[in-house]
Write a structure and sequence with these properties.
The structure holds three protein chains of three kinds. By secondary structure, chain A is of the alpha/beta class. Helix content of chain A is 48%, strand content 16%. Chain A has helices at residues 2-17, 35-51, 65-77, 92-97, 105-109, 125-128, 155-161, 169-179, 198-207, 223-239, 251-262, 276-282, 315-328, 331-341, 348-352, 354-362, 365-372, 384-393, 397-401, 407-426; strands at residues 25-31, 55-61, 84-88, 129-130, 141-147, 149-154, 181-183, 186-193, 243-244, 266-272, 287-290, 303-309, 379-380. In chain A, strand 1, helix 2 (35-51) and strand 2 (55-61) form a beta-alpha-beta unit. Chain B has a two-stranded antiparallel ribbon. In chain B, strand 1 and strand 2 (50-51) form a beta hairpin. Chain C is 71% helix and 0% strand. Chain C contains 14 helices and no strands. The chains are: A alpha/beta, B mainly alpha, C mainly alpha. At the B-C interface, helix 1, helix 3, helix 4, helix 5 and helix 8 of B face helix 1, helix 4, helix 5, helix 6 and helix 8 of C.
Chain lengths: 427, 293, 275
């Protein structure tokens, strides 16, 4: 017995006395979501770390999206930024122009590279941006959790009222009218609800045939069609009274919209495909999904976040960050991420794989966002984009719906402010 | 002898106050000085700062900022007045021993110690104009539902009410303690003189509570000026800008729009304003506080 | 409350019960939600009592992150801040209240000015400063910025000013040292203010989410409120049961402390009547 022990110990000592395994290169990945998405991401980070010994990624929560962005910038100033991070598309031009981000071209084509052609075109950086006639920026962002807005409808409610799924604005209006239930002076069920939010407005803008900026990016171009889009909401809420404007700013409004839908307080909503899992799991009715209705044309924005590397991080950490990003976007991972969250897989080979194809067959709702990509609209690659979203459009949309100002006034002011911002960056 | 004592006192004074002031300087005044510095630039925390002189201050000379000031004053004033008034009323009513009183105190205090996040979201649901509990209650008594958080004319006062709801436990506990510290002799003497009820309150209770009241006014005013969480979670400064109060405005400018220069200018302006206000408030209250000694 | 008229008494009690119900109602809802399962959470009209109660929500919340470490950090942070605040406030208050020295009043005004500087304003400059000092993501980053309290200094100074100079002089004549005078003589007399302020400080810092979030980059020194924030999913109404369970971890210790300390708080105030 004691001899056995000695042998075992001896072997163990020998094994540990072998050539020391190099310590893994440690890099940080900062993320800004909690709850389920966080769990899924952390699980994948763990899997990545276990799948190889060269790199170790530490993922940390950094608050909500804006807190995280502020911390990234503060950390960049003090040269303590993490290697990898994730960013919404609208913020990318800003960050790139400021020199904060690392180009990924070399990494993608290098020894630990990835097949760029395999990425779903509508979801990549190249597919997201309109470079306004200028030379395209190099690859610096790789899709992470990507989504489009879709129309969710309460299939049972629509069937009971004999309402067909709307495909145009007018049909949406009519359908919402039929679905709205009023009792006395109160509305028990609204036909339609959507957060009065930049993202959906952007979709409506393009559906009405407009664009945000001129083709060369030197002027704002959204005034008229943007007003048409906003006025559509104003009328639905105030004239027809078939749309509920969810109270609250930013994500609070999204939360109310989703909860109202689950509780059957509203028949149709627009929201991100990212909530599909949540809806399906919690609705006690059949959840239907469809394309967003069209007007002059069918159009949707895409959303979600991209992986980026931060230029100021040490080279070894960036290498680790890249390895992680590459791994996370490989077909196997993008499939598991997508299934767990409802965001779209970012690889064509993933979408075409037998696993996903049979999944889509059993869960056709998940395919809607993907199919809708063919009408995806690009965003102008301009540093003014983020400011226009956050300062000019987002906070001012609700004033029209609340009746404080007319949509014409708002768009006119917005147009002016947007041009100021654009010329500021143009200097 | 006296001057040696005076000099020793002076040295002692500096020695005791020095470390505190040094820390205050480092962690409070340095950020304000930093803000003053940044306020003459345009800066997004990322690209190099761009000198713009007083442009940020000029930009703040606007209806929007004026509204922020008014909102903040209304919010603070409302919270302090209501919390103090209700807190005192509750303390007077609960001021006796007994399980009921203790139980009620505990209930009322429980909302004070919970974090904002947990209760704010609950309140959002309860105040939903379509099917919130409060709306339901209003309908029961035949009143029309109010769009508590979605109406620009009402939202700020809704926040005041929710803040009072959450913080009332604190003035309650402090006033209760203050009430119980009033020596019984005073009341006995008053009873002998035939003074009861309202007279008792006005001439004995209220004056003797004035140190407590001063304490609470200062604490609550400061706390309400730093009100942030409730706005962030419940309204984001909206609807439109009707609940935009000081700290949230600065947060929005700095961390949502990344206009640090403008945010910093707002900080400087506020700092100057409040310095003035604090001095004023202090001068006014100093004369009206009475001590038992 | 001891009004002669039983009707008035009854109505008063009723009113108080309503107030108490309104105050504690949402809190009860929090507890109830923490024991529900997912479908019950978003259901409307809401059910009050979960059946059966899901205690595993607490396990899930606890296991979602290093909650034990968060708890310990929270205790360390709150206690360290309070201890430092009281120490600095009492010493400075003594000087402001009882000593004369040039610049005393100016110094006090400076302290008062600090009352208005909220954490959102202090974040960027202090983050940059602490980063240069290598202190980001350490206990120092959480505690130092709150080591001194303008409110505490103000309130304790007020209390000290009420103490007659004779008492202090008598102690000096008796040969009492400085710290004995401050901490053994004056602090007990000023106990009401100190206790009231401590209550305020503890509740504030225990629940503080913003500062521990922005001054840290990893979970090493983070506190419970940050841990609870990690449970939130923006946009969905999901998992409220887990979030409430997590929130209970933050609330319960303070409730316990308050329950234990309540008697002391009352006693602290009644002590003054013995003057």
């Amino acid at each position: 017995m004691r001899r056995m022990l000695a042998v075992v110990l001896g072997l163990a000592w020998l094994a540990s006395a072998g050539p020391a395994a190099a310590d893994p290169i440690v890099a940080q990945f900062w993320y800004s979501f909690g709850g389920k998405n966080r769990e899924v991401t952390e699980a994948h980070i763990k899997k990545f770390n276990e799948s190889q010994t060269k790199y170790r990624i530490e993922g940390t929560f950094q608050g909500d999206y804006f807190q995280a962005l502020a911390k990234i910038r503060a950390a960049a100033i003090t040269k303590t930024a993490p290697a990898a991070f994730h960013v919404v598309g609208e913020a990318l031009p800003n960050l790139w122009q400021a020199g904060l981000l690392e180009s990924m071209e070399e990494y993608a084509k290098g020894p630990n590279g990835t097949d760029l052609a395999d990425f779903v075109p509508g979801l990549t950086q190249a597919g997201y941006f309109d470079y306004l006639g200028k030379k395209p920026a190099p690859l610096f962002a790789v899709p992470f959790f990507r989504s489009t807005p879709i129309l969710y409808y309460n299939a049972d409610m629509l069937a009971a009222k004999g309402v067909k799924v709307p495909t145009t604005w007018d049909e949406l209006r009519a359908a919402a009218g039929k679905l709205t239930v009023r009792e006395g002076g109160d509305t028990k069920v609204y036909g339609f609800e959507v957060p009065v939010d930049w993202w959906f407005w952007y979709g409506l803008l393009h559906q009405a045939g407009g664009t945000l900026m001129s083709a060369d990016g030197k002027k704002a171009a959204f005034k008229d069609r943007g007003q048409e889009a906003l006025q559509f909401w104003v009328d639905l809420v105030n004239k027809d009274k078939v749309m509920k404007q969810p109270p609250g700013k930013d994500y609070s409004a999204w939360e109310v919209t989703n909860t109202d839908f689950i509780n059957q307080r509203v028949g149709m909503i627009f929201t991100s495909t990212a909530f599909l899992n949540y809806m399906t799991e919690n609705a006690k009715f059949k959840v239907g999904t469809a394309f967003l209705p069209a007007k002059a044309k069918a159009a949707v924005p895409t959303g979600g976040t991209y992986f980026v590397l931060l230029k100021d991080a040490p080279a070894a950490q960036k290498e680790a960050g890249w390895a992680f990003i590459k791994w996370m976007t490989e077909p196997e991972q993008t499939i598991s991420l997508s299934k767990a969250t409802g965001y779209m897989p970012v690889r064509l080979s993933a979408i075409n794989s037998p696993a996903m194809q049979s999944f889509y067959k059993d869960n056709p709702n998940y395919k809607v966002a993907l199919d809708q990509l063919k009408t995806a609209q690009r965003f102008p690659f301009s540093p003014a984009l983020f400011d226009i979203q956050r300062e000019v459009i987002q906070p001012n949309l609700e004033a029209a719906v609340l009746g404080a100002r007319t949509s014409a006034e708002i768009m006119s002011t917005a147009d002016q402010k947007a041009n100021e911002i654009i010329s500021k960056y143009d200097k | 002898m006296a001057s040696r004592r005076a000099r020793r006192d002076a040295w002692l004074g500096y020695a005791l106050v020095g470390p505190s002031l040094a820390l205050f300087g480092l962690v409070y005044l340095y950020p304000v000085a930093y803000s003053a510095y940044v306020s003459v630039f345009e800066w997004d925390l990322m690209t190099p700062k761009r000198y713009v002189g007083l442009a940020n201050y000029r930009a703040l000379w606007s209806a929007e900022f004026g509204e922020v000031l008014v909102n903040t004053a209304c919010y603070s004033g409302g919270v302090v007045a209501l919390a103090l008034g209700l807190g005192l009323a509750l303390a007077l009513l609960l001021n006796h021993r007994g399980a009921l009183s203790a139980g009620l105190q505990a209930c009322i205090f429980s909302s004070y110690i919970v974090s904002w996040v947990a209760v704010s979201l609950l309140w959002i649901w309860m105040l939903d104009p379509q099917y919130g509990l409060v709306t339901y209650g209003l309908r029961l008594v035949g009143l029309r539902p109010v769009n508590w958080l979605g109406s620009p004319s009402v939202a700020l006062w809704t926040l005041v009410l929710v803040t009072v709801w959450k913080t009332i436990g604190y003035p309650l506990v402090i006033y209760l303690a203050g009430l119980q510290a009033i020596p019984g002799d005073f009341y006995e003497a008053a009873a002998l003189d035939g003074a009861t009820g309202w007279k008792r309150f006005r001439f004995i209770t209220w004056p003797l509570l004035s140190p407590t009241t001063l304490f609470l006014v200062v604490t609550l005013t400061i706390a309400s000026f730093q009100g942030f969480d409730i706005v962030k979670i419940m309204t984001g400064g909206g609807p439109i800008t009707s609940t935009m109060i000081y700290v949230y405005y600065i947060y929005e400018q700095a961390f949502q729009y990344f206009r640090l220069g403008k945010a910093s200018a707002a900080v400087v302006i506020f700092f100057a304003l409040i310095l003035l206000l604090t001095l004023l408030q202090w001068l006014v209250f100093r004369r009206r506080v009475q001590y038992t000694t | 409350m001891s009004h002669p008229n039983p009707l008035v008494r009854g109505l008063t009690v009723l009113a108080l019960l309503v107030v108490a119900a309104v105050e504690v109602g949402p809190y009860v809802w929090m507890v109830a939600t923490s024991l529900k399962d997912l479908p019950s959470v978003t259901r409307f009209p809401p059910t009050l009592l979960p059946d059966p109660p899901r205690w595993d929500n607490y396990a899930k919340a606890w296991q979602s992150g290093p909650f034990l470490r968060f708890f310990v950090n929270n205790v360390i942070q709150t206690a360290a801040i309070l201890a430092l605040q009281l120490f600095f406030a009492c010493t400075a208050a003594y000087a402001f209240a009882k000593l004369r020295f040039p610049g005393r009043d100016l110094g006090f005004v400076v302290v008062m000015a600090c009352l208005i500087v909220p954490p959102q304003v202090r974040f960027v400059p202090l983050y940059i400063l602490f980063s240069h000092l290598g202190l980001v993501n350490t206990y120092a980053a959480l505690v130092l910025p709150y080591a001194v309290s303008a409110l505490g200094t103000f309130l304790i100074r007020e209390a000290f000013m009420q103490i007659s100079d004779d008492i202090v002089d008598a102690a000096r004549v008796d040969g009492a040292g400085l710290f004995t005078i401050i901490f053994r003589l004056m602090v007990p007399i000023a106990r009401p203010s100190i206790v009231a302020f401590s209550l305020f400080s503890v509740v504030y810092h225990w629940n503080d989410f913003f500062w521990p979030l922005v001054m840290t980059t990893t979970d090493t020194v983070r506190t419970l409120p940050v841990g609870v924030a990690m449970l939130r999913e923006e946009g969905t109404g999901a998992r409220w049961h887990i979030i409430m369970a997590g929130s209970m971890f933050v609330v319960a210790p303070v409730l316990v402390v308050f329950a234990v300390a309540q008697r002391h708080i009352v006693r602290a105030f009644t002590f003054t009547s013995l003057k």
